[in-house]
């Protein structure tokens, strides 16, 4: 199954336009999107989707961006997972990445997409093996099944888009949304210059600062305390870690969200000063009706 050349061209152009929007956003300072009372009513934060189309559609229904022009919607980690194409079995999650790019075009400065470890892996060709399958290879196979000879054109635009993604969303002065936290910040201060400067190949490579940021899983209290002090914030909202019940609070500064499963959760944060971790925990909601989820 290969789409018409015009469809492939439109997909490439959507990626390119989304990348331009992200780079030139008036809300962006360096690699951080800054949200405050002047531009925001509330922020809907979601986390890892990995191609879950049902949860993706539900997020858009809840966000209802057309009816809420001052609402911001945060996505992260949509690649690698979900349904596959018949016969060759290529991963269809590239379509969700395309949908994200189109949403950014349709709702510039309302839809935000954070760099995660899986999107970084696609940007840098860093191999990820899971369940005995090479996820990058399945992703490219899916693109090949959809676009055939147009894959190089699509891939070039896709890489350009991925390179434009912000590292963090800062909500007011206290809260920062990132994909994860780097490890051992209490042993050695993290290179927080990546939030402000242009990223380079070393930052994105294994051992580089961005790679450490999106691949880290050090959720110790001491680690979160040190990074928060470096950044001058109080609270982190992250993804990256699977959560049995859709969220977790591993320390007093961090809340982890997970949108992959039927128990997926999101957070709706009002633009307000003085929010505590307890306030944020009280603003976590289920993507689906708990009674329906519990049904056999």
UniProtKB/TrEMBL annotation:
Pfam families: Metallophos. Coiled coil: none annotated. GO terms for molecular function: hydrolase activity. It comes from the Bacteria. Signal peptide: none annotated. Residues 43-243 form the Calcineurin-like phosphoesterase domain. This is Calcineurin-like phosphoesterase domain-containing protein.
């Amino acid at each position: 199954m290969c789409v018409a050349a015009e469809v492939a061209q439109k997909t490439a152009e959507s990626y390119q336009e989304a990348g331009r929007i992200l780079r030139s956003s008036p809300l962006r300072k360096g690699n951080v999107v800054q949200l405050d009372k002047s531009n925001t009513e509330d922020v809907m934060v979601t986390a890892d989707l990995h191609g879950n189309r049902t949860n993706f559609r539900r997020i858009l229904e809840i966000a209802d961006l057309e009816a809420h022009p001052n609402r911001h919607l945060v996505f992260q980690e949509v690649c690698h997972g979900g349904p596959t194409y018949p016969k060759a079995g290529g991963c269809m999650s590239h379509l969700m990445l395309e949908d994200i790019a189109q949403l950014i075009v349709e709702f510039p400065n309302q839809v935000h997409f954070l760099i995660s470890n899986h999107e970084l892996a696609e940007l840098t060709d860093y191999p990820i093996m899971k369940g005995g399958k090479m996820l990058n290879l399945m992703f490219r196979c899916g693109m090949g099944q959809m676009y055939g000879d147009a894959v190089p054109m699509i891939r070039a635009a896709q890489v350009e888009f991925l390179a434009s993604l912000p590292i963090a969303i800062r909500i007011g002065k206290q809260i920062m949304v990132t994909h994860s936290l780097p490890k051992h910040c209490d042993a050695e201060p993290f290179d927080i210059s990546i939030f402000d400067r242009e990223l380079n190949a070393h930052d994105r490579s294994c051992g580089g600062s961005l790679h450490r940021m999106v691949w880290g899983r050090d959720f110790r209290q001491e680690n979160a305390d040190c990074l928060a002090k470096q950044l001058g914030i109080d609270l982190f909202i992250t993804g990256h870690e699977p959560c049995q019940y859709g969220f977790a609070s591993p320390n007093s500064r961090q809340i982890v969200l997970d949108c992959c499963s039927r128990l997926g959760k999101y957070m709706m944060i009002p633009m307000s000063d003085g929010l505590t971790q307890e306030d944020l925990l009280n603003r976590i909601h289920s993507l689906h009706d708990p009674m329906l989820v519990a049904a056999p």
